[in-house]
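Notebook entry, structure prediction.
Reason for the run: the old model in the group folder had no record of what sequence produced it. Starting over properly, with the input documented here first.
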Amino acid sequence: MKPFRFAFLLGLVAPAYADTTSCTIAAPCLACAAPLFPAEPSDPAVIGREGADTDFSAANIRIVAENRYQADGDVRFARADQRLWTESLNYDAEAGVGRIEVPLRFQDRDILVRAEGAEWHEEGSSTLQATRFQMRNGRGNGQADRITVTPEDLTRLDRASFTSCDPEDPAWMIHSNSIQIDNQRHLATARNVTLRLGDVPVFYFPWLQFPTNDDRASGVLAPTLGNSNSAGVDLVVPVYINLAPNYDATLYPRWISDRGGMLGGEFRYLGSNLGGMLEFSYLHDDDKITGADSDNRYSFEFNHRQRFGRHWSLAADLRDVSDDRYFEDFGDSLSSVATSLLPSSAYLSGRGNGWSLSFGGDRVVITDPRFQAGAEPYRRLPRMTGSLSSTNLRGPLIGIDAEWVRFAKTDYVGGDRYDLTPWISWPLEGASWFLHPRYAYRSTGYTLDAGNDRSLSRTVPIASIDTGLIFERAWGSEGFTQTLEPRLYGLHVPFRDQDDLPIFDTQELTFGFAQLFRDNVYTGADRQVDASQVAFALSSRLLDAQGLERARVGIGQIRYFDPPRVTLPGTLPRSVSGSAYVAEVAVSLSDNWSFDVAQQWDPEIDHSILGSAGVHYRFDNGSAVNLAYRYRRNLLEQVDFSTSIALNERWKLVARLNRSLRDDALLEAFGGFEYETCCYAVRVLGRRYVRNLEGDLNNAIFFELELKGLARIGRDTEEFLQRAILGYR
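New structure, fully documented this time:
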């Protein structure tokens, strides 16, 4: 007797409505309604349903006629994770029909179902009448007047509805006259679909098709809608295209009322040893640009990663934009407006035991209209770098670092450069001390494309010694450990006149705590600083019983026996016997609050040249407050305040103020609220921020409606808040 084959198909019915990506382990959803009935625990050891035995029991089973059976009282079926209960079952073996004319319950690992009756046909379609279902993970619930399962493995729902709210008082619900589910293809087709907010119908779809499992399926995604005074209404309607299991595409038709129609796209692919993504956007004839030759706006980005065996890999990151104001006009954050350089690179790299090698190139595009023509860095194409070192665990280490580059830039003299640095080092270490002496000999040469002296070179020895001690002691009665860590770094590099060498890719590094222990203050090989100096630093850390760092304080300075004389063009050498003092403090004595302070004081000008301070507090209810101050002499002075305040379980206020004290000008400010229930969330933001390098401000309104278990409508405000407010989630 096989009267309940339909029970095993029922698990494919309700999930057709559920968005299985809405709830995660990290952010679970809570069900709005109480369970339809207390679920019975399933045996976690039972995984597969195919081939599993079916257990059947009832209080009373009797023969009522020839080939007809009646089971009454606690009728129960169980198979793998599936369970079915009812009080009465009639089975006609000759006709192959099983009938349940009383309420029944069904459960599996995903859903709970109640029905008022059922009729199963071995050779034909089977039906469930007056059903209600509920997702066990809290993603939603629904009902259908009738569910029909056919021998062709098709499931049909008549007059069905779904919501993630309380079904007795839903804030939103979708209705459909009919839904047909192809269980083999995991694809559902719905007709006459209506989305209601409360009692008000807001969207109507005559036809929809969507997957019934986690598989991807082509279709229209939820649109996003925004508004700003620099662009007007901004509407994006994404269209997802599932091309194959390992690659897909998404088109982003976009309408910007003040600029025109824009098309964007994304193509993703994944292989066993490779993966990547291609993104683009294109707007033909920007309506806000008149009388210009280049009113077609576009952006392009290509990322690719691939491995070739154990040692070799390829990494490519290629980017381009149509003009230097693209990010101003189409970005929506300070970081995009502040994008001045857009780098691209592609390298084939190898790495093994004691060796590394890379071959490729890179270039940078200017995206800042304040930069003059030719301000972009030189193209480095091709470029080859490599290193080789001995791998012995004891005794001295011997190695060499090498680079060869071809530099080029339109209307500027380019050339080739090699840089070879053989070195020897002997690291000596103990539990509470270390001593790292190192000697290197750097040789750099150029072959220029033009000029009277086209062949230039520089050679210089570099000797350094890095040593330090680590003291520890118990601190307090809570199992804390305090360290005291003095460190000395001595460096000697004789002076070489380098004024005749070109500047291809060299810049001065931003001075900080880590720069106390480097053998060069410049990036690139065009300048090697001369040095007769020693750097000293003293730091102390506080570690808890688990070894986590709860506090750190440090101070350091470089003392010059002879001040460095090598500089970049346009800069003056230091005239005092020491660098700026560097100090850092970071404290996080609990999981709720932390603060950090960094300061640089320059004795040459008797003034602070850099400073920052920040404090972060997270309340037990999830609220957060952040305050930061940033200062760089003659460049910026800013204060940044942000907060996310949970008024109760549903209401949350969010705000941020980022202001330049040096210019007495607003950089960014926004404020708004979030209202969230178990089945929907509303987020509204008013925002004012700098939109271009002239300091013009943009006003924008962000609105997002999230129907949990279904879709998000409007701007992705939640992602924006996570980036803007530390501790928002």
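Summary: Residues 1-29 have pLDDT under 50 and may be disordered.
The old model has been moved to the deprecated folder.
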